[in-house]
Amino acid sequence: MLDYAPSLMTEEGAQQVDDCWNRIGIRGDKSCPQLVEHIHCRNCAVYSAAATRLLDRYALHQDDSRVAEQSLPEPVTATCSMLIFRLGEEWLGLATRSLVEVSPLAAIHSLPHQRSRALLGVVNVRGALVACLSLVELLGLDSTPAVAAQGRKMPRMLIIGGQGGHVVAPVDEVDGIHALEQRSLAAATKTSTLAAAKYTRGVIQWRGRSIRLLDDEQLLLAVTRSLT
Start and end of every CheW-like domain (predicted)? Predict the structure, then answer.
């Protein structure tokens, strides 16, 4: 134990152990009367007891460190709530902060003399007439309808809006609301053709799909302009 005990004397609280081997023992002035009997400090019961105490303290310190590491909370992954939906052949993502409701399809009533190509008409939403816009037209997407996988087609109407009011937008399919990692959204590629399109933050790969992330602030501004 002689090789370990002196180094362990630097541990907190080790000063309470009498390191007589460094003062009067084999590492000191060799004036200890026990040396006559034991020849070397390692054979002395005083030395063995001191070394055992130091090793016990060291082991306890290691155990406390492991417990502290295990009790640390796991890092929380920051996420953003996104609605994933389809228009034609494209999948898009819209932050749910701009989403008011997802509702079943409803009849669209056309308006006479409407000037905006994006304005489809109005829809009755619980007794109130709400403007209905074509996101396909607003975003400049391909208007050719796509055939979704059988049993998964869920055409719906999105009610979106901000301080300027609400509008209704029909979509071909709604996948649902998902929590996407913010670091993935921040790293969305902005160099592809889709990413260069209007009102788009970028494109991410998610569950085998290319998701076009909409810039909800710019989109809502475009919605407001289309109604004026």
Answer: 79-225
